[in-house]
Amino acid sequence: MSKKNRLIVLLYVAALCSQNLCAQPRVMGVEEMFRLADENSRSVQVYATGKEAASEALKAARNQRLPDITASVSGSYWGNGKLWDRDFGNAMKIDMPHWGNNFSLEVQQMIYTGGAVNSGIELASLGKRQAELDWEKNRQDVRFQLLGYYLDLYKLNNQAKVLEKNLELARQVIADMQARRGQGTVLRNDITRYEFQQESLKLQLARVTDACKIMNHRLVTALRLSEQTLVVPDSALLEAEVQALAESDWQELAMRSNITLKQTETDIEVNKQLVKRERSERLPKISLFAAEHLDGPITIEVPVLDNNFNYWYVGVNVSYNFSALFKNARKLKQAKLNVRRAQETRELAQEQVENTVQASYTDFLTAFTELKTQEKNVQLANENYSVTSNRYRNDLALLTDMLDAGNTKLSADI
Description:
Elements: H1 3-13, E1 25-28, H2 30-40, H3 42-62, E2 68-77, E3 81-83, E4 92-94, E5 99-112, H4 116-182, H5 188-223, E6 230-233, H6 247-257, H7 259-280, E7 285-296, E8 309-319, H8 324-327, H9 329-393, H10 399-413
Parallel strand pairs: 1-6
Antiparallel strand pairs: 2-5, 3-4, 5-7, 7-8
Protein backbone atom coordinates (compact mmCIF):
# COMPACT_ATOMS: atom_id res chain seq x y z
CA MET A 1 0.00 0.00 0.00
CA SER A 2 1.40 3.40 -0.97
CA LYS A 3 1.86 6.19 1.58
CA LYS A 4 -0.93 8.19 0.00
CA ASN A 5 -3.40 5.33 0.22
CA ARG A 6 -2.33 4.60 3.78
CA LEU A 7 -3.02 8.22 4.71
CA ILE A 8 -6.51 8.02 3.19
CA VAL A 9 -7.14 4.90 5.24
CA LEU A 10 -6.06 6.67 8.42
CA LEU A 11 -8.17 9.73 7.77
CA TYR A 12 -11.32 8.28 6.26
CA VAL A 13 -11.78 4.60 6.97
CA ALA A 14 -12.07 5.38 10.70
CA ALA A 15 -14.98 7.74 9.95
CA LEU A 16 -17.63 5.07 9.33
CA CYS A 17 -21.16 6.25 9.84
CA SER A 18 -23.53 4.69 12.36
CA GLN A 19 -25.19 2.57 9.64
CA ASN A 20 -21.83 0.88 8.96
CA LEU A 21 -21.58 2.59 5.58
CA CYS A 22 -18.25 3.99 4.45
CA ALA A 23 -18.34 7.75 3.89
CA GLN A 24 -17.15 8.85 0.47
CA PRO A 25 -14.46 11.56 0.18
CA ARG A 26 -15.44 14.59 -1.90
CA VAL A 27 -12.69 16.67 -3.45
CA MET A 28 -13.84 20.27 -3.16
CA GLY A 29 -12.27 23.47 -4.45
CA VAL A 30 -12.66 26.90 -2.86
CA GLU A 31 -15.00 28.20 -5.57
CA GLU A 32 -17.28 25.19 -5.23
CA MET A 33 -17.34 25.68 -1.47
CA PHE A 34 -18.34 29.34 -1.90
CA ARG A 35 -21.08 28.36 -4.36
CA LEU A 36 -22.50 25.81 -1.92
CA ALA A 37 -22.37 28.41 0.85
CA ASP A 38 -24.39 30.88 -1.24
CA GLU A 39 -26.96 28.18 -2.00
CA ASN A 40 -27.20 26.37 1.34
CA SER A 41 -25.89 28.49 4.21
CA ARG A 42 -28.70 29.27 6.65
CA SER A 43 -27.01 32.50 7.65
CA VAL A 44 -26.84 33.71 4.03
CA GLN A 45 -30.47 32.71 3.47
CA VAL A 46 -31.60 34.72 6.50
CA TYR A 47 -30.04 37.88 5.09
CA ALA A 48 -31.34 37.08 1.60
CA THR A 49 -34.85 37.04 3.05
CA GLY A 50 -34.07 40.38 4.67
CA LYS A 51 -33.24 41.74 1.21
CA GLU A 52 -36.58 40.56 -0.14
CA ALA A 53 -38.41 42.16 2.79
CA ALA A 54 -36.59 45.46 2.19
CA SER A 55 -37.56 45.35 -1.51
CA GLU A 56 -41.22 44.95 -0.54
CA ALA A 57 -40.88 47.83 1.93
CA LEU A 58 -39.61 50.05 -0.91
CA LYS A 59 -42.60 49.10 -3.08
CA ALA A 60 -44.93 49.87 -0.18
CA ALA A 61 -43.30 53.28 0.30
CA ARG A 62 -43.72 54.10 -3.39
CA ASN A 63 -47.40 53.17 -3.14
CA GLN A 64 -47.86 56.12 -0.77
CA ARG A 65 -47.92 58.31 -3.88
CA LEU A 66 -51.14 56.64 -5.01
CA PRO A 67 -54.52 58.15 -4.06
CA ASP A 68 -56.47 57.03 -1.01
CA ILE A 69 -59.84 55.57 -2.00
CA THR A 70 -62.48 54.60 0.51
CA ALA A 71 -65.99 53.29 0.01
CA SER A 72 -68.68 52.41 2.50
CA VAL A 73 -72.19 50.93 2.35
CA SER A 74 -74.53 50.68 5.30
CA GLY A 75 -78.16 49.82 6.03
CA SER A 76 -80.07 50.83 9.15
CA TYR A 77 -83.42 50.60 10.89
CA TRP A 78 -84.94 53.93 12.00
CA GLY A 79 -87.33 54.23 14.90
CA ASN A 80 -90.08 56.89 15.05
CA GLY A 81 -89.07 60.36 16.11
CA LYS A 82 -90.49 62.75 18.72
CA LEU A 83 -90.78 66.54 18.50
CA TRP A 84 -90.99 68.95 21.48
CA ASP A 85 -91.12 72.66 22.05
CA ARG A 86 -87.98 74.26 23.43
CA ASP A 87 -89.32 73.76 26.96
CA PHE A 88 -89.99 70.11 26.12
CA GLY A 89 -93.72 70.62 26.06
CA ASN A 90 -96.30 69.70 23.39
CA ALA A 91 -94.68 66.43 22.48
CA MET A 92 -95.52 65.20 19.02
CA LYS A 93 -94.81 61.84 17.44
CA ILE A 94 -93.07 61.95 14.08
CA ASP A 95 -93.46 58.99 11.81
CA MET A 96 -90.17 57.96 10.25
CA PRO A 97 -89.33 55.70 7.34
CA HIS A 98 -87.97 52.66 9.11
CA TRP A 99 -85.32 51.58 6.58
CA GLY A 100 -82.27 53.75 5.91
CA ASN A 101 -79.30 53.41 3.60
CA ASN A 102 -75.95 55.10 3.05
CA PHE A 103 -73.34 54.82 0.32
CA SER A 104 -70.19 56.92 0.06
CA LEU A 105 -67.16 56.93 -2.19
CA GLU A 106 -64.26 59.26 -1.36
CA VAL A 107 -60.96 59.83 -3.16
CA GLN A 108 -58.04 61.84 -1.79
CA GLN A 109 -54.77 62.56 -3.56
CA MET A 110 -51.87 64.19 -1.73
CA ILE A 111 -50.14 66.67 -4.00
CA TYR A 112 -47.74 68.23 -1.47
CA THR A 113 -46.55 66.82 1.86
CA GLY A 114 -43.47 68.94 2.45
CA GLY A 115 -41.29 66.11 1.14
CA ALA A 116 -42.55 63.52 3.65
CA VAL A 117 -43.57 60.96 1.01
CA ASN A 118 -40.39 61.37 -1.04
CA SER A 119 -38.34 61.14 2.12
CA GLY A 120 -40.14 57.95 3.10
CA ILE A 121 -39.40 56.46 -0.31
CA GLU A 122 -35.76 57.44 -0.06
CA LEU A 123 -35.55 55.94 3.43
CA ALA A 124 -37.03 52.69 2.14
CA SER A 125 -34.54 52.73 -0.74
CA LEU A 126 -31.69 53.22 1.71
CA GLY A 127 -33.15 50.44 3.86
CA LYS A 128 -33.00 48.17 0.83
CA ARG A 129 -29.40 49.23 0.29
CA GLN A 130 -28.61 48.48 3.93
CA ALA A 131 -30.18 45.03 3.63
CA GLU A 132 -28.09 44.34 0.53
CA LEU A 133 -24.92 45.43 2.32
CA ASP A 134 -25.83 43.34 5.37
CA TRP A 135 -26.32 40.34 3.07
CA GLU A 136 -23.03 41.01 1.31
CA LYS A 137 -21.15 41.41 4.59
CA ASN A 138 -22.68 38.26 6.04
CA ARG A 139 -21.85 36.41 2.83
CA GLN A 140 -18.28 37.63 3.13
CA ASP A 141 -18.09 36.65 6.81
CA VAL A 142 -19.44 33.18 6.03
CA ARG A 143 -16.84 32.78 3.28
CA PHE A 144 -14.02 33.83 5.61
CA GLN A 145 -15.24 31.38 8.24
CA LEU A 146 -15.55 28.52 5.77
CA LEU A 147 -12.18 29.35 4.23
CA GLY A 148 -10.68 29.16 7.72
CA TYR A 149 -12.18 25.68 8.19
CA TYR A 150 -11.02 24.69 4.70
CA LEU A 151 -7.41 25.83 5.22
CA ASP A 152 -7.32 24.27 8.69
CA LEU A 153 -8.44 20.99 7.16
CA TYR A 154 -5.79 21.37 4.43
CA LYS A 155 -3.14 22.07 7.06
CA LEU A 156 -4.22 19.12 9.21
CA ASN A 157 -4.11 16.80 6.21
CA ASN A 158 -0.56 17.98 5.52
CA GLN A 159 0.37 17.40 9.17
CA ALA A 160 -1.04 13.88 8.91
CA LYS A 161 1.20 13.25 5.89
CA VAL A 162 4.22 14.56 7.81
CA LEU A 163 3.44 12.40 10.82
CA GLU A 164 2.91 9.36 8.60
CA LYS A 165 6.30 9.90 6.94
CA ASN A 166 7.99 10.29 10.29
CA LEU A 167 6.24 7.19 11.57
CA GLU A 168 7.60 5.29 8.58
CA LEU A 169 11.10 6.55 9.37
CA ALA A 170 10.68 5.51 13.01
CA ARG A 171 9.61 2.02 11.94
CA GLN A 172 12.67 1.73 9.72
CA VAL A 173 14.97 2.84 12.54
CA ILE A 174 13.37 0.36 14.96
CA ALA A 175 13.72 -2.42 12.38
CA ASP A 176 17.40 -1.55 11.92
CA MET A 177 17.93 -1.40 15.68
CA GLN A 178 16.29 -4.79 16.17
CA ALA A 179 18.57 -6.27 13.51
CA ARG A 180 21.61 -4.70 15.18
CA ARG A 181 20.44 -5.95 18.58
CA GLY A 182 20.71 -9.47 17.21
CA GLN A 183 24.34 -8.63 16.47
CA GLY A 184 24.80 -7.33 20.02
CA THR A 185 25.48 -3.70 19.03
CA VAL A 186 22.20 -2.19 20.31
CA LEU A 187 20.64 -2.41 23.75
CA ARG A 188 16.99 -3.21 24.36
CA ASN A 189 16.69 0.09 26.21
CA ASP A 190 17.60 1.95 22.99
CA ILE A 191 14.81 0.19 21.11
CA THR A 192 12.37 0.99 23.92
CA ARG A 193 13.21 4.69 23.73
CA TYR A 194 12.58 4.76 20.00
CA GLU A 195 9.36 2.76 20.42
CA PHE A 196 8.28 5.44 22.85
CA GLN A 197 9.01 7.99 20.10
CA GLN A 198 6.90 5.94 17.69
CA GLU A 199 3.95 5.80 20.11
CA SER A 200 4.19 9.57 20.57
CA LEU A 201 3.94 10.01 16.81
CA LYS A 202 0.92 7.71 16.71
CA LEU A 203 -0.77 9.80 19.40
CA GLN A 204 -0.09 13.00 17.47
CA LEU A 205 -1.50 11.41 14.31
CA ALA A 206 -4.63 10.32 16.19
CA ARG A 207 -5.14 13.88 17.48
CA VAL A 208 -4.67 15.31 14.00
CA THR A 209 -7.15 12.78 12.60
CA ASP A 210 -9.72 13.77 15.25
CA ALA A 211 -9.13 17.45 14.48
CA CYS A 212 -9.78 16.64 10.80
CA LYS A 213 -13.12 15.13 11.79
CA ILE A 214 -14.04 18.28 13.71
CA MET A 215 -13.14 20.58 10.82
CA ASN A 216 -14.95 18.33 8.35
CA HIS A 217 -18.10 18.34 10.50
CA ARG A 218 -18.07 22.14 10.71
CA LEU A 219 -17.72 22.39 6.94
CA VAL A 220 -20.48 19.95 6.02
CA THR A 221 -22.80 21.45 8.64
CA ALA A 222 -22.30 24.99 7.36
CA LEU A 223 -22.74 23.84 3.75
CA ARG A 224 -25.71 21.62 4.71
CA LEU A 225 -24.19 18.56 3.09
CA SER A 226 -24.72 14.96 4.13
CA GLU A 227 -23.08 14.07 7.42
CA GLN A 228 -21.33 11.21 5.63
CA THR A 229 -19.51 13.65 3.31
CA LEU A 230 -15.76 13.86 3.88
CA VAL A 231 -14.33 17.03 2.35
CA VAL A 232 -10.91 16.71 0.72
CA PRO A 233 -9.32 20.10 -0.08
CA ASP A 234 -8.29 20.43 -3.71
CA SER A 235 -4.48 20.44 -4.06
CA ALA A 236 -4.89 22.91 -6.96
CA LEU A 237 -5.12 25.53 -4.22
CA LEU A 238 -1.32 25.67 -4.19
CA GLU A 239 -1.31 26.76 -7.82
CA ALA A 240 -3.45 29.85 -7.17
CA GLU A 241 -1.63 33.09 -7.88
CA VAL A 242 -1.40 35.72 -5.17
CA GLN A 243 -2.25 39.20 -6.40
CA ALA A 244 0.75 41.46 -5.77
CA LEU A 245 -0.17 45.11 -5.26
CA ALA A 246 1.50 47.99 -3.49
CA GLU A 247 0.14 49.01 -0.10
CA SER A 248 -1.28 52.23 -1.57
CA ASP A 249 -3.25 50.18 -4.10
CA TRP A 250 -4.69 47.99 -1.35
CA GLN A 251 -5.59 51.09 0.67
CA GLU A 252 -7.37 52.62 -2.32
CA LEU A 253 -9.20 49.37 -3.01
CA ALA A 254 -10.29 49.11 0.63
CA MET A 255 -11.60 52.68 0.73
CA ARG A 256 -13.58 52.02 -2.44
CA SER A 257 -14.88 48.53 -1.73
CA ASN A 258 -14.91 47.90 2.02
CA ILE A 259 -18.44 46.91 3.03
CA THR A 260 -18.23 48.50 6.47
CA LEU A 261 -17.39 51.87 4.89
CA LYS A 262 -20.32 51.48 2.49
CA GLN A 263 -22.58 50.80 5.47
CA THR A 264 -21.41 53.96 7.23
CA GLU A 265 -22.06 55.97 4.05
CA THR A 266 -25.59 54.58 3.93
CA ASP A 267 -26.10 55.46 7.59
CA ILE A 268 -25.17 59.07 6.81
CA GLU A 269 -27.74 59.22 4.02
CA VAL A 270 -30.40 57.65 6.24
CA ASN A 271 -29.88 60.28 8.92
CA LYS A 272 -29.98 63.07 6.34
CA GLN A 273 -33.36 61.79 5.16
CA LEU A 274 -34.56 61.73 8.77
CA VAL A 275 -33.65 65.42 8.99
CA LYS A 276 -35.73 66.09 5.88
CA ARG A 277 -38.65 64.17 7.34
CA GLU A 278 -38.58 66.21 10.53
CA ARG A 279 -38.47 69.41 8.49
CA SER A 280 -41.47 68.26 6.48
CA GLU A 281 -43.53 68.33 9.68
CA ARG A 282 -43.18 72.14 9.65
CA LEU A 283 -44.57 72.48 6.13
CA PRO A 284 -48.23 72.52 5.02
CA LYS A 285 -49.97 69.50 3.51
CA ILE A 286 -52.07 69.96 0.39
CA SER A 287 -54.41 67.40 -1.12
CA LEU A 288 -57.21 67.11 -3.65
CA PHE A 289 -60.37 65.25 -2.74
CA ALA A 290 -63.63 64.14 -4.33
CA ALA A 291 -66.66 62.36 -2.90
CA GLU A 292 -69.94 60.80 -3.98
CA HIS A 293 -72.78 60.15 -1.49
CA LEU A 294 -76.18 58.48 -1.69
CA ASP A 295 -78.19 58.75 1.54
CA GLY A 296 -81.78 58.00 2.53
CA PRO A 297 -84.12 58.94 4.07
CA ILE A 298 -83.76 62.73 4.14
CA THR A 299 -83.94 63.66 7.82
CA ILE A 300 -83.26 67.41 7.56
CA GLU A 301 -86.93 67.96 6.70
CA VAL A 302 -89.93 67.53 8.99
CA PRO A 303 -91.79 65.50 8.15
CA VAL A 304 -88.96 63.26 7.04
CA LEU A 305 -88.78 62.61 3.32
CA ASP A 306 -88.66 58.94 2.40
CA ASN A 307 -86.33 59.57 -0.54
CA ASN A 308 -82.72 58.96 -1.55
CA PHE A 309 -80.50 62.03 -1.71
CA ASN A 310 -77.46 61.96 -3.99
CA TYR A 311 -74.72 64.57 -3.92
CA TRP A 312 -71.04 64.92 -4.79
CA TYR A 313 -68.26 67.40 -4.25
CA VAL A 314 -64.61 68.07 -5.10
CA GLY A 315 -62.16 70.36 -3.39
CA VAL A 316 -58.69 71.21 -2.14
CA ASN A 317 -57.59 70.61 1.42
CA VAL A 318 -54.75 72.57 3.03
CA SER A 319 -53.64 71.66 6.55
CA TYR A 320 -50.87 72.98 8.75
CA ASN A 321 -49.73 71.65 12.10
CA PHE A 322 -48.76 74.77 14.06
CA SER A 323 -47.70 72.68 17.07
CA ALA A 324 -44.83 71.30 14.97
CA LEU A 325 -43.15 74.73 15.24
CA PHE A 326 -42.37 74.11 18.90
CA LYS A 327 -42.74 70.33 19.23
CA ASN A 328 -40.34 69.30 16.46
CA ALA A 329 -37.49 71.69 17.27
CA ARG A 330 -35.76 69.18 19.54
CA LYS A 331 -36.39 66.28 17.19
CA LEU A 332 -34.88 68.25 14.31
CA LYS A 333 -31.81 69.09 16.38
CA GLN A 334 -31.47 65.44 17.38
CA ALA A 335 -31.67 64.36 13.74
CA LYS A 336 -28.92 66.82 12.80
CA LEU A 337 -26.70 65.51 15.61
CA ASN A 338 -27.29 61.96 14.37
CA VAL A 339 -26.01 63.04 10.95
CA ARG A 340 -22.86 64.41 12.53
CA ARG A 341 -22.39 61.26 14.58
CA ALA A 342 -22.79 59.10 11.45
CA GLN A 343 -20.14 61.21 9.69
CA GLU A 344 -17.77 60.85 12.63
CA THR A 345 -18.43 57.10 12.68
CA ARG A 346 -17.43 56.90 9.03
CA GLU A 347 -14.18 58.77 9.73
CA LEU A 348 -13.43 56.36 12.57
CA ALA A 349 -14.19 53.37 10.33
CA GLN A 350 -11.85 54.77 7.65
CA GLU A 351 -9.08 55.04 10.23
CA GLN A 352 -9.65 51.45 11.40
CA VAL A 353 -9.69 50.10 7.85
CA GLU A 354 -6.48 51.96 7.03
CA ASN A 355 -4.76 50.48 10.09
CA THR A 356 -6.05 46.99 9.33
CA VAL A 357 -4.87 47.11 5.71
CA GLN A 358 -1.45 48.39 6.76
CA ALA A 359 -1.05 45.63 9.37
CA SER A 360 -2.33 42.94 7.00
CA TYR A 361 -0.03 44.09 4.22
CA THR A 362 2.95 43.98 6.57
CA ASP A 363 2.01 40.46 7.68
CA PHE A 364 1.56 39.53 4.02
CA LEU A 365 5.15 40.52 3.22
CA THR A 366 6.44 38.85 6.38
CA ALA A 367 4.76 35.61 5.31
CA PHE A 368 7.02 35.33 2.25
CA THR A 369 10.13 35.73 4.41
CA GLU A 370 8.76 33.18 6.88
CA LEU A 371 8.02 30.76 4.03
CA LYS A 372 11.58 30.95 2.70
CA THR A 373 12.95 30.49 6.20
CA GLN A 374 10.75 27.46 6.86
CA GLU A 375 11.69 25.88 3.53
CA LYS A 376 15.37 26.34 4.40
CA ASN A 377 14.74 24.85 7.85
CA VAL A 378 13.14 21.78 6.27
CA GLN A 379 16.12 21.35 3.96
CA LEU A 380 18.61 21.66 6.83
CA ALA A 381 16.58 19.38 9.09
CA ASN A 382 16.43 16.68 6.40
CA GLU A 383 20.17 16.97 5.77
CA ASN A 384 20.86 16.82 9.50
CA TYR A 385 18.64 13.75 9.91
CA SER A 386 20.29 12.00 6.97
CA VAL A 387 23.81 12.69 8.29
CA THR A 388 22.91 11.73 11.87
CA SER A 389 21.19 8.55 10.69
CA ASN A 390 24.26 7.48 8.73
CA ARG A 391 26.53 8.30 11.65
CA TYR A 392 24.29 6.33 14.02
CA ARG A 393 24.30 3.29 11.74
CA ASN A 394 28.10 3.48 11.71
CA ASP A 395 28.23 3.85 15.51
CA LEU A 396 29.51 7.41 15.22
CA ALA A 397 26.47 9.07 16.91
CA LEU A 398 24.48 8.45 20.05
CA LEU A 399 20.81 7.50 20.22
CA THR A 400 20.06 10.90 21.78
CA ASP A 401 21.54 12.53 18.67
CA MET A 402 19.23 10.43 16.54
CA LEU A 403 16.18 11.36 18.61
CA ASP A 404 17.08 15.06 18.50
CA ALA A 405 17.53 14.91 14.72
CA GLY A 406 14.16 13.18 14.37
CA ASN A 407 12.37 15.74 16.55
CA THR A 408 14.01 18.60 14.67
CA LYS A 409 12.92 17.11 11.33
CA LEU A 410 9.36 16.59 12.60
CA SER A 411 9.14 20.16 13.87
CA ALA A 412 10.49 21.60 10.64
CA ASP A 413 8.21 19.47 8.46
CA ILE A 414 5.11 20.46 10.41
